[in-house]
Amino acid sequence: MKGKMETDMGQVLISPEVIAKYASETAYECFGIVGMAMVGVKDGLVKLLKRDSSTKGINVIINEKNEITIDFHIIVAYGVNIATITDNIITSVKYKVEEFTGMAVKKVNVHVEGVRAID
To answer: What does pTM read for this prediction?
Structure first.
C-alpha cells in the first residue's frame, strides 16, 4: 500500500520503495553499521548487500491509518555496542522519515543478522 497525503491541490502518493531508500541512507549515516543484510529463505544464510541494493534488507509496511512500520536487517561492526547502534538507528530513522514524508512512523524494528570486523 502506498502512503498518501491530501493537499489543497490533490493527493500525493508515496511508494514504500522510496521510503525504504530514504531510511537506508539515514541508517548508513549511523555509526557502527556495516551494511544491510538479506537472509536467504531457502538456506538461512545471511548476505551483506551492496549499498545500491540495500533496500532489499528493509521492509516498509504502510497500514490503512497511513502509519509506517520499517523492518531493518543489518550487519553491525565488531566491538561496538549493539544496543547503542540500534537505538541510534531507531531514533534517526523515525525522526527523518517522519520529516521527509509527513507521515507517522509507528514502529522501527531492527534485526541484527551478523557482526563483521571493519578494516
So the answer is: 0.85
